[in-house]
């Protein structure tokens, strides 16, 4: 297989060290306190800086370990902390928290499969006429997401062991175990047995090497970036939780459904992956962008469902996972359009527009059901 080289080297920057530290300091000073609007603005600014720092450190790590490990590390790191945020909000959320996991996970799926994917395909196709990627790896990833979403978010509507759109205890255990097994199988396929299916595709044929002419970061620097990435992501999620009361108040004041809170949380948490994916698309590495987008959707389901299944042991109230009819239609349309986009191995702005239109419909229907 032909291997081409490319340039990819995130510079060493002092701000990338200072931003995570600032986010942690602001988080420590505001955690559990009622803060005025001016402090909310400061928290939002610190959150944005932490997002940019997280992207920087993720690129350093990706440059050191290569693809697809780099995108996998960022997707898993973001999702693990997202799961922690969901569980924390569910613990103190009362009755409204019964659907928080479902709303946030489905929002993550729609944002990644339609929003991040659509933007990246649009950026790459406008710059290079078409966006090219490997349909074998991308198709396998989409099939995994479709299976996980159906087992976890659709089937609860059609079971009869429990009333309402929820699983019984045994069914929830099965869904959690199936999610972990399928996600683990995907990771093994992506990183070991068929790693070449998930490497960026060269237009001349073959794949693009992640080992470029620029100096590869040392192990010490990569480990430092990994630590700073976790700190930055922790700051992002902690500050997102800190501003969530303001978000909930604003949603309620505007008369919008509580499910919009899950959408906003997903948008905030997925910012690092969105920026990293768009950067990759600009460099004509659409496969890396799709690894991030679809991998994030998969990690969101594969890690969140087992986590909330365990948390439900001590949480009061039901755990509602079943999607409404409108959202099931949007999920089916997303899988159908995604399949037709992936099969040729290349996409134009038309395919990008289709995905963005589905995302726009989801956001509009979330605000106005």
From TrEMBL:
Is Transmembrane helix there in the keyword field? yes
Q: Residue ranges of the Sodium/calcium exchanger membrane region domain? A: 38-191, 225-366
Its principal location?
Answer: membrane
Compartments annotated for it: namely: Membrane
Entry keywords, A to Z: Membrane, Transmembrane, Transmembrane helix
Q: How does it sit in the membrane?
A: Multi-pass membrane protein
Q: What is this protein called?
A: Ionic transporter y4hA
Name the lineage. Bacteria, Bacillati, Actinomycetota, Actinomycetes, Kitasatosporales
What superkingdom heads the lineage?
Bacteria
Transmembrane segments in this chain: where?
Answer: 38-57, 69-93, 105-126, 138-158, 170-188, 222-240, 252-271, 292-315, 321-343
Originating organism: Streptomyces fragilis
